[in-house]
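Person: Please comment on this record:
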Amino acid sequence: MKATAALALCGLLILAAPCMAGAANAAEVDLTKGRLFQSGTYSIQTMGALNKSGRTIDFLEVECGFFLKGQLIRPGGGAAQNVQPGQTAYFDVRSSDTSNADSTECRVGGATPKDNVEAPRQSSAPPSWDQTLATRAVTMALLTAVAIDLSRASGKPPKGLFGRDGDGIRRGH
């Protein structure tokens, strides 16, 4: 089971590597929290994000935890686009069902520099269609291998993966 889990983890890291390539370092972004306020069932944390890197950040994602008396209620997220070097972007981070939140803790969730964005492809198919199919196939194969290993360890087949009898044979209704 450990070998399959390690294989699955390695496979997912390989699949995620292109998404992380060239990401701006979180240390290159200074976050400043503004006012925390409530609107209906939402809590809204106003934010400022200073781009200290030498590159334009095409997409900046910020994640916040919304707390009540030190206890995490829910996470929330917000984003800014096209943040030039030396520029501060201002935006809101929102979370639903947190109208009683009294504090937040925030971090940079991801920052993609402008030079990491792919140029549009000249094709009739959607961009990266083949990559999407390959990624889904590999991910499903890895998840299936992990599910089979877990079922062998527990002696019970995972629900929804095998037939009703757990032998992998699908039968009519």
Notes: Confidence is low (pLDDT under 50) at residues 4-23, 118-127. The chain has two domains: 2-18+127-154, 22-115. The longest strand covers residues 71-83.
